[in-house]
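Before the break, one more example. Copy the sequence into your notebook; we will annotate it together after we see the structure.
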Amino acid sequence: MPGAPSSSPEERHSVSGASEVVALQVRAREFAAAAGLGRVGQWELAIAVSEAVTNMIKYGGGGELILRRGEHPRPFVEFEARDRGRGIPSISDALVDNISEGEDAREASDPRRRRGLGLGLGAIQRLTDEVEIHSEPGVGTTLRARKWISGSGR
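Here is what the structure looks like once it is written out:
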């Protein structure tokens, strides 16, 4: 569960269940605001965190979320989501909208059986400025996404 607000440049949160998604989304927005990210950027980061945490729970059995701020090469806020799930066999396929677990979610014969819409990783990529995904089948996935802090209020 998210901790109390901190002035630290980094916060670590254990992720184990769906009840934590909203709390971590709120904490990410608060962390981004304290770092100086504008209102729109705060919400973009918070939604991206929500997508990442949901994926960690759904596909990785939980993990760890790290919120971080920094100054190099310019001011930024980022999050890192780490799980020890089965990994992503093809990151390029996983970034294609509507593809969930290698299948086109729009063509599911029974929508109740699909685990996702296949929009999460693509949304994270669209909502943040930089995304890195490292995944090893059978070992897990680490996703790092960064938002630049600018003077524009975005």
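The longest helix spans residues 39-60. The first strand starts at residue 10 and ends at 15. Try to locate both features in your own notes.
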